[in-house]
Prior knowledge:
The protein is α/β, with parallel strands linked by helices. It has helices at residues 6-20, 26-38, 42-61, 89-103, 146-149, 162-177, 195-206, 217-231, and strands spanning 2-5, 71-79, 82-85, 126-132, 137-144, 153-157, 185-192, 246-254, 261-268, 275-278.
Amino acid sequence: MRKINTSVLENTIYKMAMRAGVTLTPSCRAALDSALKKESGKACAFALETLIENSNIALEKQMPVCQDTGMAIVILEIGQEVYLEGKPLAQAVNDAVRRAYADGYFRKSVCDPITRKNTGDNTPAVIHTEIVAGDKIKITFLPKGFGSENMSKLYMLKPAQGVDGIIDSIVETVKSAGSRPCPPVYVGVGIGGSFDTCAFLAKKAIARDIGTHNERADIAEIEKTALERINALNIGCQGFHGDTTALGVSCEWAPTHIAGLPVAVNIQCHCVRCEKEII
């Protein structure tokens, strides 16, 4: 049994949040560079150049790479041989977010859903925990802006709709969103599970590096086909009608009930921010 004080977790998440607020993931930056090289539309090329320049300035000056510094999504894969001591886990996570959003001068965007009163410190974070083998904790910190989150959808398909229905749902989500989620987007898809786990799978898919593929060949084919169809929509960067509407499509899956086929499509804007650490 390995003891880990939650203060270690708190300080690690604090540093991750500080980095995530000002930094695109390497795979996102590479995908934007690639999109620019093959973009044939002048307006879209200009927009892509501007997005890349913005990311350079944000990193150089350590300023938020987007005005929407996001709701903090924290995924903790906790080894079953870990014994946590110190302050409660959720308190440690939220203390880290509170400190980072103050010290980084990141916008505080969390509020009561009814009164709309801001909590003032971007907490509480959305915390997902999974118990896994081993004596380590894998942390994923994903700040999620809501311009793109609001464009996400969950479908309860009929099993007979099959692969075609899954792909149609992915493409229709991006098509109906149009320019609103600040494309080029990154699309995370959850297939299977239940109503709630399906959405979590889609969120986990967003945390994958752009350009990676599911290890199952049939699901990787869904990713490939959906991406091709999305980019054929000609929405383009910021809606200026160009070659790249999506930087990538990533799918995660889980077994489901014989009577259902849940599909969740989680849209991420061009500003992909995600930090991962193992302690």
